[in-house]
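Example record

The entry below shows one chain as it appears in the dataset: sequence first, then structure tokens.
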Amino acid sequence: MTTPIADFSPALPTEPTWRQRLASLDSPYVVPVFITMVLVVGQLSFGFLESASRTFLAISVAIGVELLLGRLLLGKWQHPASAYVSGISVGILVRSPAFWPFALCAALSICSKYVLRYRGRHLWNPSNFGISALLFLGGEMVGSLSIQWGNHVWAMLVIWVLGAFIIWRLRRFHITATYVLAFICYAGLRSWYTGATFESEISPVTGPMYQLFIFFMITDPKTTVKTRRGQCLVAFAVATVEAVLRLAQVVYAPYYALFFVGPTALMLETWWAARSELRDASAAPVGSPARGVS
């Protein structure tokens, strides 16, 4: 009779189940579920959608363009979660009596991921790019959601609490917190400078447009710089540029502020990283292995 030999090889890590991933918020569906909740709560409280059909059109175009470009340019089918978030953001934020702005904005948003790139990274948050471009080029036909929750305080609190919890678990709460604190400080300065009430200056941040902006646009992992300090600095810079644009009576100040600040920060970070790698490689002794090669 032979004695079985014990197997001392290390156990391979098991793939987490979808329940475990959802519980830890490590799931591509967490953000789509949350933004859908924003839509449902906002629609039930305010009826703030231009129409369900226009929102569905924006989502469909965003997902369709994502799948098509991913297949043509990358040779694979892309996960639709990111495109869904972009499409639903367009459906919520764009205002127009026509259908074409919703389709065009969704298409522009997704195309920007594949066309406007620097050293392999896309620079703009997709929905921020699409909405900013459409507002700038088609301002006579297109507007943006600008209402506040009004007396529906419970709706605002539900979204804020859930949103804060989710981005805290995703380790991006510091970005939102930095922006909101800066916005409040600048609201106080604007109130003192213009003579407007502090409540009127701070009221926009309570609206659904700003909730999408602070929970989805400025925290987008693909279009934010890598370091925690850098992320806080960029969020503060966005709030600063927005404050200046507000004093200049620019209606869509937050969109434009992020449009200019975010990509600039990404390009500078990417350029600096490439420069540092080149400097390190040139400083390496002759005959030593290249960095990162074993």
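Notes for this example: Residues 1-12 have pLDDT under 50 and may be disordered. The chain has twelve helices and four strands.
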